[in-house]
């Protein structure tokens, strides 16, 4: 935590740099969102423009707030990034963010100390402090949307690893020589279990499945698959069952690796948690070693705000009296 931070200040700003949206929120020490702002990410425009967007949303939620009230600003961004130095190492979905000193650039532009964290870890932190992970010492947060990411709380602390890069759980290899992943490797969990992968399977299979509502020529996305599943569409039901089983495969590995009390599912596909849960649970019941099977699998409580709230809450860490864990 940088010097100059306002110790004991009641408010913090969280910024979430996402591939589709740049968002900011003003939160208090109880994790309550008091104000928010969002804008579509200019993902192809380069870092200078995106920095302006980050400053604009932060400025909007911080407007009228006295500096003495603000503990600082926490930023969540896609990895890999080095949270010790505040340098983004490379964001595949946003142009120009390669070895980019994001924390330093924002600190100087906003004249406020900025702390940078991987978005998966920030979301794990948010759920641990204020959401579905409250009261636990060991949890794994899994976000499933266009990709798969996550973060781990183990023994009552955040697992960061070298350069703060631990927890890229989407890039666990689940199939040797398997499907090509956005990271360049083959067979990653993300290449099979992400919403993107689900949508691609739906598009490919809808061409040959008779009678499916997914086959009317439109672009099918993950949400469309779950909508069709609710209508009883046969192909959609198969795809959802398969997706649940793929998620189960990764979750079984996470149970064996980290022995969490709870696995928290967030991201876009968490909206379909009820449809996915039975398949995930049944795979865990079959494949996890018996002693691991009683870990809970739950939906994220802060929905789309886990990372934003977690990022903001990081800046409260410097104050022992209010550190919750
Ligand atoms: Zn990968």
Write the layout of secondary structure elements.
Elements: E1 11-17, E2 21-28, E3 33-40, H1 47-62, E4 70-77, E5 81-82, E6 87-88, H2 102-110, E7 114-118, H3 119-130, E8 139-144, E9 148-154, E10 157-158, H4 189-193, H5 195-206, H6 222-230, H7 234-258, E11 262-266, H8 273-287, E12 296-299, H9 306-314
Parallel strand pairs: 1-4, 4-7, 8-11, 11-12
Antiparallel strand pairs: 1-2, 2-3, 5-6, 8-9, 9-10
The chain binds zinc ion (ZN).
The site of zinc ion has 6 residues, from loops.
Explain what the structure shows.
This protein is an alpha/beta fold and 325 residues long. It is built from 9 helices and 12 strands. It has helices at residues 47-62, 102-110, 119-130, 189-193, 195-206, 222-230, 234-258, 273-287, 306-314, and strands at 11-17, 21-28, 33-40, 70-77, 81-82, 87-88, 114-118, 139-144, 148-154, 157-158, 262-266, 296-299. The strands form 3 sheets. The protein has a 5-stranded mixed β-sheet, sandwiched between helices. It has a 5-stranded mixed β-sheet with strand order 10-9-8-11-12, with helices on both faces. α7 packs across α8. The protein is globular, with a radius of gyration of 20 Å. The protein starts with 10 loop residues before the first strand and ends in an 11-residue tail after the last helix. Zinc ion (ZN) is lined by residues 171, 181, 183, 185, 188, 190.
């Amino acid at each position: 935590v940088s010097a100059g931070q306002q110790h004991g200040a009641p408010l913090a700003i969280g910024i979430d740099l996402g591939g589709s949206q740049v968002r900011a929120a003003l939160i208090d020490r109880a994790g309550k969102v008091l104000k928010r702002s969002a804008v579509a990410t200019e993902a192809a425009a380069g870092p200078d423009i995106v920095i302006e967007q980050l400053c604009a949303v932060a400025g909007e939620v911080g407007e009228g707030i006295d500096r003495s009230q603000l503990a600082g600003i926490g930023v969540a961004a896609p990895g890999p990034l080095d949270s010790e130095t505040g340098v983004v190492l490379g964001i595949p979905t946003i142009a120009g963010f390669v070895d980019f000193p994001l924390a330093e650039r924002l600190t100087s532009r906003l004249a406020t100390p900025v702390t940078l964290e991987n978005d998966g870890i920030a979301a794990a932190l948010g759920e641990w402090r204020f959401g579905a992970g409250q009261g636990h010492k060991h949890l794994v947060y899994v976000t499933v949307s266009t990709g798969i990411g996550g973060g781990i709380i183990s023994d009552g602390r955040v697992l960061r690893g070298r350069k703060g890069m631990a927890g890229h759980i989407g890039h666990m290899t689940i199939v040797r020589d398997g499907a090509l992943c956005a990271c360049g490797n083959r067979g990653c969990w993300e290449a099979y279990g992400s919403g993107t992968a689900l949508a691609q399977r739906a598009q490919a299979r809808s061409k040959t499945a008779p009678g499916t509502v997914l086959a009317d020529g439109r672009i099918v996305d993950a949400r469309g698959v779950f909508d069709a599943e609710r209508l009883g569409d046969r192909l959609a039901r198969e795809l959802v069952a398969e997706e649940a089983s793929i998620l189960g495969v990764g979750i079984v590995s996470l149970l064996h690796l980290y022995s969490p009390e709870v696995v928290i599912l967030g991201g876009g596909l968490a909206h379909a948690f009820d449809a996915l849960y039975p398949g995930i649970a049944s795979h865990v019941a079959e494949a996890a070693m018996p002693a691991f099977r009683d870990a809970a699998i739950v939906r994220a409580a802060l929905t789309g705000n886990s990372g934003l709230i977690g990022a903001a809450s990081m800046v409260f860490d410097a104050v022992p009296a209010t550190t919750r864990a």
